[in-house]
Design a protein that fits this description.
It is a multi-pass membrane protein. This protein has 25 helices and 4 strands.
């Protein structure tokens, strides 16, 4: 039925129309099969797959053991209690983990950076995508996230630490003024709304399955639980829960990944088929036919067929061993040319451009991540921030990439050849030679089922706890980051119109209040882009999150440290032009939602509606009964989606606008134009409650960890700053 990796585009494609009452929308074809079955289809106790295509109805997967739900629940409660306990520990005050007295040692910085990077997107989203499509479709997520930490450690981390600010937008305030500060703040908050939504989806996908509740309800439970301990215990709770969740979660995920790699079949083997299935080779060739003791076909001369007498001794419908015939030559764990050849996954399309764009978006867009840079600000020295980023990036590779290998293993048990698989009856595909039942419907819970049904129970539960912990450790940091930026960098600007709206005394309260609407918006988005969504759920939302800041924030961020006297006008034009370009291209470029740019080859054809009542060519029947696509064509459209082009184009435009404005102003010897709020300023944080409270965490860490001398600290501290000359300070 299908060549290597039947899974690939099958999951990314959707049929032209959805069947309601009938199995096939075309009434002539549907009536033919009703006459053949002697009753309306699907017949009682049967299914459309069997009545139309002769494929056994999918078998039901048993419910997960109660122990999995109990284990995950206990882990959530422990994290929740740890977070709440920090409130009482600091007597009702939250701690500013963004600066933390600038005293965090290397091991804390490394763990918290990696905890923010290795989230449910890098684990569950990664495994889901590599299961539905192929290895690199999932692996690009941890590759991009790990690269971002390496790039940050090399180019930005030590500069960020030297700034001694509270939030990332504070740096923009110092260089570019209030207008750019507010724009950057809004862009980063929008980005983190998406990031939080993706992690809520990961949490909800697991708990809804284990607790047997709707995914929407599970997402809202996640939002409430994480918000409560984060807003109550503040950034102090984020620090403690990150460490606990990171250590416990990573170990479980790593152990589970390498256990599967060592003990399970690497990828789906060649298909054994079903009664009437013709093998792609002949008897005596030493291939699939001989592997499964094939026998001579009845109708097709010289061909080798499924051995019905051997595998179905009880008769048709009661075969001891069969599958869907999805892999005539078997699947592979990895196709080595997937990142260089758009036909690497033939007969299925390869999202080559999108995969490279994903690495670029995550690798550079994540440099504007509020949580990443907050940990750099909190580091004890610039070298600590730099080394912590590099080690955190390597940890992301080590933990995340093995999960992409699990996609192929998941396909062994829940892929198109598995007895639990389901196909859309009313679909055809000329590239697969299928007039009906062409599209495979991937199971959105397949990887979770792999952990609960195919792994040792202890390891499966441990890995589920790890993914939940990864989701929570990133989600709580995202909530606090959004609350701090909104209160400190956005709402505080309204003091000119509403005096006393935000003061050092009520800033903590304002930060907690602003987390509420942000969390609610993320929960609503997560409920829409849940795990069954065609866009890819967790992994997709992560990429969207950093697509936003790649187009707007990253270029002026580099300008802060690598441009001589960075211009507020250059930053403003880069942010506005990049954002507008990204927004316009979102609606101008053709996008069908499948993330595949058009190529004029059959592999890039979408599925069409069922087009014939005849048999595929690999079924042993009289040749006159084989489907001829020339006589009965399958009505298919080419994929056409330029997603990725918009992201890269917007980033390029932002670079051109920033460098162009800087160059023009340099040659002109003055400002290109003036605008309000363009003067760089430094926020007064000497009496900032968050800064004062950070001493609590510093004292705790100094008691727990012996301070270490950082070599080269003075040299890094003395690096020149790109601060604009004569920047006025705000009273």
């Amino acid at each position: 039925m299908f060549c290597k990796g039947f899974l690939l585009a099958a999951a990314a494609s959707a049929m032209a129309s959805i069947v309601n009452a009938d199995c096939i929308k075309d009434q002539a074809i549907n009536e033919f099969f009703e006459d053949l079955n002697g009753a309306p289809i699907p017949t009682e106790g049967s299914c459309c797959m069997f009545d139309v295509c002769g494929l056994e109805c999918p078998k039901e997967t048993s419910d997960p053991g109660k122990g999995f739900g109990i284990a995950v629940t206990i882990s959530i409660v422990i994290s929740f209690l740890i977070g709440l306990s920090t409130y009482f520990f600091v007597h009702g005050k939250s701690v500013n983990f963004f600066v933390a007295g600038r005293s965090l040692p290397l091991w804390i910085v490394t763990i918290t950076l990696a905890a923010q990077s290795v989230d449910s997107n890098a684990l569950l989203g990664n495994a889901d995508l590599s299961y539905k499509y192929h290895f690199y479709d999932g692996a690009v997520i941890p590759i991009g996230l790990g690269m971002s930490l390496l790039i940050n450690g090399i180019f930005l981390a030590h500069h960020i630490n030297n700034e001694e600010v509270l939030t990332l937008p504070d740096i923009f305030a110092k260089r570019y003024g209030k207008t750019v500060e507010v724009l950057v703040s809004l862009c980063t908050v929008c980005s983190f709304i998406m990031l939080l939504a993706g992690n809520l989806v990961g949490f909800g996908a697991i708990t809804s399955y284990l607790w047997d509740i709707s995914e929407e309800a599970a997402i809202w439970i996640a939002a409430i639980v994480i918000w409560m301990y984060t807003a109550t215990g503040g950034l102090f709770s984020v620090a403690y829960t990150d460490v606990v969740q990171g250590v416990i979660g990573w170990s479980g995920c790593v152990v589970m990944a390498f256990w599967f790699i060592a003990n399970e079949t690497e990828a789906p083997p060649p298909s054994i088929g079903f009664p009437g299935y013709i093998y792609p080779d002949n008897i005596g060739d030493g291939g699939t036919c001989d592997m499964y003791n094939g026998t001579a076909c009845v109708e097709t001369e010289g061909a080798c067929c499924y051995n019905e007498a051997l595998w179905c001794p009880k008769g048709l419908g009661e075969c001891d061993r069969y599958d869907r015939g999805a892999y005539p030559f078997g699947d592979k764990r990895v196709f080595s040319d997937q990142m260089s050849n758009y036909l690497a996954l033939a007969p299925f399309p390869n999202a080559l451009l999108w995969n490279w764009a994903t690495i670029f978006i995550l690798g550079f867009g994540n440099l504007a991540a509020l949580d990443f840079q907050a940990r750099c600000m909190a580091s004890k020295t610039p070298n600590t921030a730099r080394i912590g980023c590099i080690i955190g990036g390597l940890l992301t590779f080590f933990i995340g990439i093995p999960f992409a290998y699990l996609g192929a293993i998941t396909r062994v048990h829940y892929g198109p050849d598995a007895v639990v698989s389901e196909f859309e009856t009313d679909t055809c595909a000329v590239q697969l030679g299928l007039p009906t039942c062409a599209q495979w419907n991937p199971d959105p819970k397949a990887f979770i089922k792999l952990l609960t049904h195919e792994a040792p129970e202890v390891l499966g539960a441990w890995c589920l706890i790890g993914i939940i912990s990864a989701s929570m450790s990133t989600a709580d940091g995202a909530i606090l980051a959004m609350g701090t930026v909104m209160s400190h960098n956005v709402v505080r600007q309204f003091d000119a119109w509403i005096p006393g709206l935000v003061t050092p005394d009520n800033l903590l309260l304002m930060a907690r209040i602003t987390t509420i609407p942000m969390t609610m918006v993320s929960a609503f988005l997560g409920s829409f882009y849940r795990s069954s969504h065609s866009a890819g759920a967790t992994g997709y939302l992560l990429i969207v999150a950093f697509d936003i800041v790649l187009a707007t924030v990253v270029v002026p961020l580099f300008g802060c440290f690598y441009a001589k006297n960075p211009s507020p006008r250059a930053a403003l034009l880069a942010v506005v032009s990049g954002g507008l370009c990204r927004l316009i291209l979102e609606f101008v470029l053709p996008k069908d939602g499948f993330l595949l740019i058009p190529y004029d080859v059959d592999e890039f054809l979408d599925y069409g509606p069922a087009c014939s009542d005849l048999f595929p060519s690999f079924i042993d029947v009289n040749s006159t009964l084989h489907w001829d696509p020339n006589e009965q064509p399958c009505d298919q459209d080419h994929f056409e989606d330029f997603t990725g082009v918009d992201s890269l184009s917007s980033f390029l435009l932002a670079i051109i606008m920033f460098l162009g404005t800087q160059s023009i102003e340099y040659m002109k010897g003055g400002a290109l134009f003036e605008f309000g709020g363009s003067g760089g300023y430094i926020k007064d944080t000497t009496e900032h409650p968050l800064a004062k409270e950070s001493k609590s965490l510093r004292n705790v860490l100094e008691d727990a960890v012996e301070p270490t001398k950082e070599e080269g600290e003075d040299a890094v501290k003395d690096e020149p700053s790109a601060m604009p000359e004569e920047a006025p300070e705000e009273e």
